[in-house]
Amino acid sequence: MKRAVVVFSGGQDSTTCLIQALQQYDEVHCITFDYGQRHHVEIDIAATLSKTLGAKAHKVLDATLLNELAISSLTRDSIPVPSYNSSLQSPIPNTFVPGRNILFLTLAAIYAYQVEAEAVICGVCETDFSGYPDCRDEFIKALNQAIVLGIARNIRFETPLMWLDKAETWALADYYQQLALIRHQTLTCYNGIQGDGCGECAACHLRAKGLQHYLQDKAGVMASMKQKTGLL
Question: What is the pTM of this model?
């Protein structure tokens, strides 16, 4: 039996990864982390979506120790979430949570070991991203190698969205006939607004720009996505 673990936040990217994983694996487990994030509602949304889409299990893991160490606008209410334009002024915006993906992927790999999953799937992307160093392909591959050495099991880190832009990520959701669910039921917004979000933060800007591009050129974007993902 083919099993996978999806690092699942209930946002656009991780939900798209879950939708695809459910088509590719016999059994899919979701793991969501409570790290004292600014908007705790994302945990409830992740629980609802994992059940709606048919994941085998959904585990919420306490990772609040990260909140004690990682200072970010996503972990501190006192730090304002920057608008899209202001976030461009810094190479790494204050929405970056230092060490988050290092911790999450490590814990997800331990969980995958226990449930005998062969893959950990994560929705990070290097093509359209906010400058986070832990979303880069080089980092994912390096950590994956270290994990395999450390637990003596060949658990793969899969990043299906790594080379897709946001328009192509929308196309992937539409390919699986789940565009409406992704648009209206996920939470990507840094200000904690479900669906189309606040429209002001960097996450909302990338999401809306990608959707607009996809809706304007469905055939072209779909063809590009299929070529990159091998879904021809």
Answer: 0.92
Q: Which of 68, 71, 50, 69 is nearest to 59 (CA)?
A: 50
Buried b (16+ CB within 10 A) or exposed e, 70-79: bebbbbeeee
Q: Which residues pair with 58 in a beta bridge?
A: 30
232's tokens = 């021809």
| Torsion (CA) 166, 129, 100, 151 in degrees, nearest 10 | 70
pLDDT tens, residue by residue, 149-190: 999 999 999 999 999 999 999 999 999 999 999 999 999 998
> Crossing angle, helix 202-216 and helix 218-229, to 10 degrees?
110
Q: DSSP for the chain? A: --EEEEE--SSHHHHHHHHHHHHH-SEEEEEEEES--S-THHHHHHHHHHHHHT-SEEEEEE-THHHHH---TTT-TTSPPPBHHHHTTSSS-TT--TTHHHHHHHHHHHHHHHHT-SEEE----SSS--S-GGGSHHHHHHHHHHHHHHHTS-PEEE-TTTT--HHHHHHHHHHTT-HHHHHHH----TT---TT--SSBHHHHHHHHHHHHHHHSHHHHHHHHHHHHT--
The predicted-structure confidence for 81-107, as pLDDT tens digits, reads as follows: 665 555 555 667 766 777 889 999 999
Dist CA 7 CA 9 (whole Å) = 7
User: Hey, what are 76's tokens?
Assistant: 């501190």
